[in-house]
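SAMPLE LOG
Freezer: B-3
Tube label: C17
Construct: single chain, 151 aa
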Amino acid sequence: MAFAQGPNNKKDLNFELNLMPVFDILAVCICFLLMTVVWVEVKALETQQSIGGQSLAETTQSSSFWLTLDEANNISFTVKSTKNSDKQYSITNLRGQLDIKKVASMILSVKNEKVVTAHILPTKNTKYDQVIQLMDVLKQNGVKDIGLSPI
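STRUCTURE (predicted):
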């Protein structure tokens, strides 16, 4: 046992550090982690690059949708065709929100073009849920490849 040096100082320099509270907190954290991992459900949207990821020889020329959103949630809906000239439609907002039903009916009305590619061009102030809603409507109506620009 070591003692402090000095004429009258006989303090004990060895001391014990109580680590039980640290182990208790660590055990609680590990239990919390194990319990919450079970309840976390990871949701993902399967995406891939719609154009530009393959060589020019592999790229097939097909019609595509171009959906441009503006600051007021209006949608400029353009059908770019390989054979005919481009067709452009405008979808106004519904009380400040995207009119998803009108987008779905527009997709169905021009579906004879066999469009499998779409591009969404949001503004910097577009909310993510609006972009996801557009992607859902496009996927539900048979559009396989969806591009998002700028990312």
